Amino acid sequence: METNRQQKVNRLIQKELGEIFLVETKKMPGVLVSVTHVRVTPDLGIAHSYLSIFPSEKGSEMVQNINDNVKSIRYNLGKRIGKQLRVVPELVFYLDDSLDYIENIDKLLK
């Protein structure tokens, strides 16, 4: 069960990461990255972020690249939310393949 504070921090980080990725993906035409869900640990030290990437063939490569550059993303996030949070949580990114799963189910049902 998440506390009210955790839920607020989840939404804040999701919104700000979405804006960061929007700016960064404008440099790469044909790629869309969206933050589908963020879960923060109870001590607000680690944020597990789930990314949906289009096209899905580039998904694992993009998540690996994002995890390699997590320090610069955390720095940019800190500049945006530094006044609202005392400590910027460490970021861990995962590929959210739920859309591919839903698409596969629809294809099987047809």
Give a topology summary.
Elements: H1 4-25, E1 32-40, E2 46-54, H2 59-68, H3 70-81, E3 90-95, H4 98-109
Parallel strand pairs: 2-3
Antiparallel strand pairs: 1-2
Helix pairs in contact: 1-3
What does this protein structure show overall?
- The chain has 110 residues and is α+β, with helices and mostly antiparallel strands.
- The protein is 51% helix and 22% strand.
- The chain has 4 helices and 3 strands.
- The chain has helices at 4-25, 59-68, 70-81, 98-109, and strands spanning 32-40, 46-54, 90-95.
- The chain has a 3-stranded mixed β-sheet.
- The longest helix is centred in the N-terminal third of the chain and has 22 residues, at 4-25.
- The protein is globular and about 50 Å long.
- The relative contact order is 0.18.
- The mean pLDDT is 90.
- Secondary-structure element pattern, one letter each: HEEHHEH
The low-pLDDT segments are none
Strand content: 15-25%
Q: Give the helix tally.
A: 4
Write down the overall mean pLDDT: 90
Task: Give the N-terminus to C-terminus distance in angstroms.
Answer: 38 Å
Q: How many E strands?
A: 3
Query: How would you classify the helix and strand content by structural class?
Result: alpha+beta
Throw out a few tags for this protein:
alpha+beta, 51% helix, 110 residues, 4 helices, single chain
Quick structural gist:
The chain has 110 residues and is of the alpha+beta class. It has helices at residues 4-25, 59-68, 70-81, 98-109, and strands at residues 32-40, 46-54, 90-95.
